[in-house]
Amino acid sequence: MQCVFVQIQCEPGKAYEVADEIALLEVHSELYSTSGEFDLLVKIYIPDDRDIGHFLHDSVFGVPGIERTLTTMTFKTF
């Protein structure tokens, strides 16, 4: 499994709606509201046989109300 973190900036006033939609997708391990430039932080484990870009595009990135994302890939667990 490949672990990625996705920070999500939502349209104004849409953070709770976006979070609810992501929760319904059941693709995340953890989902947090955050302060700062981004509204949400999602931890996702992607199966090794799936393309990361396609997986995120086909699931999370299609949620209405998302304005911008920043994906951080992980490489090693310490």
Description of the molecule:
- It comes from Pseudooceanicola batsensis (strain ATCC BAA-863 / DSM 15984 / KCTC 12145 / HTCC2597) (Oceanicola batsensis).
- It holds the Pfam family AsnC_trans_reg.
- Residues 6-77 form the Transcription regulator AsnC/Lrp ligand binding domain.
- The chain has helices spanning 15-25, 52-58; strands at residues 2-10, 30-33, 40-46, 66-73.
- The protein starts with a strand and ends in a 5-residue tail after the last strand.
- The protein has a 4-stranded antiparallel beta sheet with strand order 2-3-1-4, covered by helices on one side.
- The mean pLDDT is 95.
- It has 2 helices and 4 strands, in the order βαββαβ.
- The chain has a single domain (2-73), classed as 2-Layer Sandwich (Alpha-Beta Plaits).
- The radius of gyration is 12 Å and the shape is globular.
- By secondary structure, it is an alpha+beta fold.
Short descriptors:
RAM domain protein; Dimeric_a/b-barrel; Tscrpt_reg_AsnC/Lrp_C; 78 residues; alpha+beta
Name of the CATH first level: Alpha Beta
As a percent range, the share of helical residues equals 10-25%
Roughly what is the average pLDDT, rounded to an integer?
95
**Unreliable sequence segments:** none
Largest sheet: 4 strands, antiparallel
Number of strands: 4
Query: In CATH, what is the homologous superfamily?
Result: Lrp/AsnC effector binding domain/regulation of amino acid metabolism (RAM) domain
How many structurally independent domains? 1
Q: How much strand content do the residues show? A: 35-45%
Shape: globular
> What structural class do helix, strand and pairing data support?
alpha+beta
Tally of helical runs: 2
Radius of gyration computed on alpha carbons: 12 Å
Strand order of the largest sheet: 2-3-1-4
Element pattern in H and E: EHEEHE
